[in-house]
Amino acid sequence: MSGDGWIRQVSPMIGEEEALAVHRVVESGWITEGPESAAFVEELKECVGSRFAVLAPNGTLALALGLLALGIGPGDEVLVPDLTFAATANAVRLAGADVKLVDVEPVRFGIDPDGVEAAIGPRTRALVTVDVNGRGADYGRLEPICRAKGLVLICDAAEGLGSRHAGRKIGSFGLASCFSFSANKTITAGQGGIVTTDSDALHGRLRELKDQGRLYGGTGGDDLHPVIGFNFKFTDLQAAVALPQLDEVEQSLRRLAARHPGALIERKSCSVCLHWRRVSAAQHDATGRDRPAVAQHHAGVPGRHEKAGRKLGRFRCYRGQPHLSNDHAAGVCGSP
Ligand SMILES: Cc1ncc(COP(=O)(O)O)c(C=O)c1O
Q: Which residue has the higher pLDDT, 93 or 260?
């Protein structure tokens, strides 16, 4: 319980190590995106298992940057799950594309693959999945659908850093994944976000779009700006806060593995969610649906309940979506 009498659902894993790191960066005289950010990117790539990672000011802008870099914009339509934080759909609008909301599965809360197939139209260019509380969407079905229909799959993994799904790391599905470092995420930089990808071409596009069209910045007055870009930069102050927390992600997973020998984390039939400093694991049954959690650690706080209020189709700005059944709009679904 905090001093003000509230039981906090989550509090940042920041302390002396982060404070010392910020002090070191301030003393270095380089506070914008530079060497500390580069070190953070290297460690994050290892944590996610991606070849490339490009920092952004927050998770919303990481997703918008990813969409822009993929050439998605006005005239395009993007499929988005109905149950998510508004940022997912708002990022699509920021890129200039239209949002088509699709129902989620009632148990796993990921976008419903049948709903995706039904919603694809002539203007549909991309699918944005959301890994709610670190639970992977049904990628076993969604990846082949996207391949068959020529859709770009981009994952809003804002809530999923460190989580595993079906033997793979969240962040390893689709063409790109976007993470958030806001205060209630697995690790926090105050604000911050990152796009991860294995694609060389996408990496180049992300780099130039985030830095005023420069592929290589910081050359002084002779910088080259061959294409139009913007400013989606991070700062070394944020990187100093975020970097030490990555160790805790690995340690949490190691603790889970030690308590549950038998490589629970790597098993294809399991989801391991690292969300709000809690590690939980759920076993999938033969149909891929989750059974009740088989392990929960770092407890002491209640899990989040996914209320119908998180459903975007209820808000005026996203109302009137033809593909929503809203059959669980009044329901309350428990987190893992
Ligand atoms: C699913 C989801 N997408 C996107 C975001 C946006 O991230 P940010 O707050 O860093 O912009 C969040 C969290 O805030 C989120 O939970």
A: 93
